[in-house]
Write a structure and sequence with these properties.
The chain has one domain. It is built from three helices and five strands. A hairpin with a 4-residue loop joins strand 3 (about 35) and strand 4 (about 40). By secondary structure, the protein is an alpha+beta fold. Bound molecules: iron/sulfur cluster (2 copies). The site of one iron/sulfur cluster has 10 residues, from loops.
Length: about 110
């Protein structure tokens, strides 16, 4: 039976992500439009207009940015969930880059949202 694919509004997917060795990894940095207390988006109705990095559900599924237990992806066969935490070393590496998420190499600064 197919699981309920409704978003539970946990806010976890609203944290910035980077690519490390080809794998999506969550950073501890929330989107500037996320209310971290309520875990709700403060611009929800206009989010794609105001924040172009905000992915649609379809795009997010395709790019495998949702946590593995998110209802949107939990029953998708072969879905590869992101790693949910950076290592200390990776965090330090990000800190040394120009701008919080720029740079090339092992850690790619391309933001995924
Ligand atoms: S991780 Fe899934 S359940 Fe949580 S806010 Fe994102 S889409 Fe909704
Ligand atoms: S703009 Fe998108 S990523 Fe940012 S808080 Fe709203 S839904 Fe989340």
């Amino acid at each position: 039976m197919r699981k309920n694919r409704e978003c539970k509004k946990c806010g976890r997917c609203c944290y910035y992500k980077i690519i490390v060795d080809g794998v999506v990894v969550y950073t501890p940095y929330p989107c500037e439009y996320l209310d971290v207390e309520t875990r709700l988006c403060t611009i929800y109705d206009r989010r794609h207009e105001i924040h172009p990095l905000c992915a649609t559900a379809e795009d997010g599924i395709k790019r495998e940015i949702f946590p593995g237990d998110c209802p949107l992806v939990a029953d998708i066969p072969g879905y590869r969930p992101p790693r949910m935490k950076l290592t200390m070393r990776e965090l330090h590496e990000i800190g040394r880059l120009e701008g919080p998420f720029s740079g090339k190499g092992r850690i790619s600064g391309k933001l995924k949202k």
